[in-house]
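User: Show me a protein chain along with its predicted structure.
Assistant: Here is one chain, sequence first, then structure tokens.
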Amino acid sequence: MGGSGGEADGEDEPWTWERAKAFADSCGELKARFINHFVSRPYNGHAYGPHDLAQLRRILSLDENAWPDTVLHEHTDTLVILTARAFVITPQEGAKIRLQRLNSKLLTPTRKLLMALQDEEFAREYVQDGSPLTEEDRQQLIESVTVFKANLEKHIAEIKDAGRRGKAWDSDLKDRFVTYVDWMCEFLDNNFEPKRAVDAGSEDHSHFGKCVYLLARPLKWSSDGIRPVGFDGAIRKHVDQWRSSIFRVAQELEDERNGRDGENPPPSSSM
């Protein structure tokens, strides 16, 4: 998996966790607000205390001299900032309420606006000599509103599909958190690979699962901050996707190798 990175090679982007941390560092004063709002009991302005960080080091077999609390605070705070931001922008209402609001406040008015803009007779009311809106402006506006309407309808269709599947409002949020944990763990341990070891559907007992539950424990996932939140499904999904990606890359490399060999096949022996 990806190492701790460093400088990008050529035009390659920096490694994922470095970009994530750079974003979190740019939050400035919001950092403290995110931590205080989303962490049950912050430790001296940080998301995790010495006990949590010591457990993280044990799970990942990290050297305390190389990864002291001061350094781990930076990375674990980043994890919480990313998660808190995702939490803030994630709608917490059910699919029915969200669909009603989107239809009444956005989709219906957008459709009416588009119909009005496309009405050639009505266009004479506002597109004429001396008008600030030209025919070119009208066509550009029609194009923009059409794209917006298509994107909005796609978004609504996704919400409907999630509602039919009984998808919980925080499902994507859990997926994001599990992904962030993977990024951070891979940064801290170059040899880290996300694995799962679920025992009869119970809590994941792999190193990856232990990290997820350890780092999720101090966070306010529910409205009352008390109810436990499970991540087994999100962990399974993430690991399966990771394995699929690894297999796909390996297959592409194998196909590329075979393709190069195919361009210069060995000479056939003649009888």
